[in-house]
Amino acid sequence: MEMCGSKEALLQKAEIYRELSEYYSGVLRSGKAAAKHIGALLPGRVVVPKIDVDSAYDYNQLFIGPSTLLAPPFEAFYHKVSPTVLESENLLVRNACVEAGLASAEEGDELDGHVFYAFAFVSKLLETLADQPSLESKEAYGLWHTYQWFLKEHIFAWIYDHLCDVRRYSVSSFCKDVAAAMNTFLLSEQDLIALEACEA
């Protein structure tokens, strides 16, 4: 399956999505690791952020609270689709993450499309795809299609507005730099999907 690239490339992207997921679960060093790996994938386009004394405070203000979040990490906040559709699709994603051991069933009650689950789901899709005996199989094509569909319908539909809010309201260079690295990576993913659609 030429469009997928190599198994090594799929695993490289899976690692970036996993690290971004961990970052949104509160592991700041995973945001730094993701930016570093994005920089290796896309040389010369990413600044590797430094964690400083303001980073944790800024992170909490943006994503956790206790006050009103400055950049809510929830699909439902930005992506205005039917609440019923969003709720059922988020439930499927959350269940897939739990079954894969990427999250606990007890984590949160709301089916709000937290970006933690979205990135964990994409990471698992890419790992499963790379684990296929052949990238030319029907199963591999199905996984590739699901990966593209999920990015287009769920992540690309709102993530850039979220990242814009992060850059607008962040007081630390760390959160801004992680957001910039994510933006660069996701735009490269979007460009590859669009290019493939043109060549189909």
List the helices and strands and how they pair.
Layout: H1 7-24, H2 28-41, H3 55-64, H4 75-78, H5 83-99, H6 115-130, H7 138-155, H8 159-169, H9 173-199
Helix pairs in contact: 1-2, 1-6, 2-9, 5-6, 6-7, 8-9
Keywords: Chaperone
Pfam family, one: Nitrate_red_del
Organism: Selenomonas ruminis
- Kindly report how far apart the N and C termini lie: 13 Å
CATH architecture: Orthogonal Bundle
| Strand segment tally | 0
Would you identify the CATH H-level superfamily?
A: TorD-like
Specify the number of helices.
9
Q: In what range is the share of β-strand residues?
A: under 5%
What oligomerization state is this entry in? single chain
The main sheet comes to: none
What name is given to the CATH topology?
Answer: TorD-like
Q: Mind telling me the CATH class? A: Mainly Alpha
SSE arrangement, N to C: HHHHHHHHH
Which structural class best describes the helix and strand composition?
mainly alpha
Spans of at least 5 consecutive residues whose pLDDT stays below 50 are none
InterPro entries: DMSO/NO3_reduct_chaperone, TorD-like_sf, TorD/DmsD_chaperones
Protein name: Molecular chaperone TorD family protein
Keywords: Chaperone
Organism: Selenomonas ruminis
